[in-house]
Amino acid sequence: MGLRELNRDERLDWLRLIRTPTLGPVAFRDIMRRTNGDAAKALEILPELTRGKRFEIFSRDAAEAELEAHESQDIHLLASCEPDYPDALRAIDPPPPLISVWGEPSILRRPCVAVIGSRNASAIGQRFAGQIARELGEAGLTVISGLARGIDTQAHWGALETGTAAVLGGAADHVYPSQNADLYDHIRSKGALVSESPLGYRATARDFPRRNRIISGLSMGVVVIEAAERSGTLITARYALEQGREVMAAPGSPLDPRVKGCHRLLKQGAALIENAQDVLYVLGDVHEMQEPSQLYTGPDSFDYNGDLDKAKAAIKSLLSPTPTPRNDIIRLSGLPIALASAALLEMELLGEIFVETDGKVSGV
To answer: Among 41, 79, 112, 155, which residue has the fewest nearby CB atoms (within 10 Å)?
Structure first.
């Protein structure tokens, strides 16, 4: 299905679908494939997909209220099928179906690079982040980061005049951390604040991996400046690798624990960078971003004539608290792909499993 603008009723249907409890981007993608991109039809068949089991769909009144809140604050609500949605983010599978953008969406359609790192960064690390972000911005790139303390903060300040976007774990209208309120206001007026969370939502720990996936998804590459061995920054780097993005890291003193994560990335093949020219050289090898995923094309492959209860039992026996790739679960179950996919979809909708935004599945 090609790119198109949603009308108001369609946007409300998309909102109702993605805001329905337990329905994440993976289930959204699968249901929309069944209906060839028709969200109204998807809402109609939800009871069928759960075989009549209790399932509460996000109300139209609540969707109207959220859309009106976006409109009253001049916050853009972009669907992944619309031309203004960032192409790079649309290319990941699955992309966030809807994102809120407060500020100027057009800077997200320029080539983007993420500059991220430790919250408890050294003075020299923060200085380097600001300098490299400023120079990358002057070279025509939009600098993406996560508005966290430390490296993120300095990267945003460094690229403020040329264009920077902050991806938030909470809502676009919620400042976190509070000490970055001034920076938040500057980015809103000169750049863009990005979130897939509902307005008014306050982030919890489980929201930051989702945030990190968007940071890497928007970017051609990720520059890591100071990251401990166990760091959320490394989650972003992992997502970047999975999405086919470039991963770059700045070296530091082997005596500083804040750079051990960077050194691990370098050992694993990340590009070593010492200045903005190094970054531009690496990104110069990125000729084209991967093609945007075609979310809503292809035949309807679900088969509901099989024994879903037996299929669900087989899948549950394979699950653990550790997130496992969806394809591995389907392969190991020995079930037909259509039947296993239908079982996974019902289990997600009913809250019987937890599905990460990248499609990995774990038990609840």
So the answer is: 41
Give the up-direction half-sphere exposure of residue 239: CA atoms within 13 A in the CB hemisphere.
Answer: 32
Prediction pTM value? 0.83
Compute CA distances 257 → 31, 89, 306, whole Å.
45, 32, 54
Whether residue 351 sits in one domain with residue 250? no
What distance in Å separates the CA atoms of residue 62 and residue 71, rounded to the nearest whole number? 14
Strand order across the 221-225 sheet: 76-79, 98-103, 192-195, 164-167, 142-145, 112-117, 221-225, 246-249, 271-272
102: three-class secondary structure by DSSP? strand
Which of 157, 165, 154 lies closest to 113 in space, CA to CA?
Answer: 165
149 pLDDT band, cuts 50/70/90, is very high
- List pLDDT tens digits, range 160-175: 999 999 999 999 999 9
SS3 of 100, please? strand
- Whether the Cβ atoms of residue 226 and residue 237 lie closer than 8 Å to each other: no
Q: Note down the domain range covering 270.
A: 109-190+202-283
Strand partners, 1: none
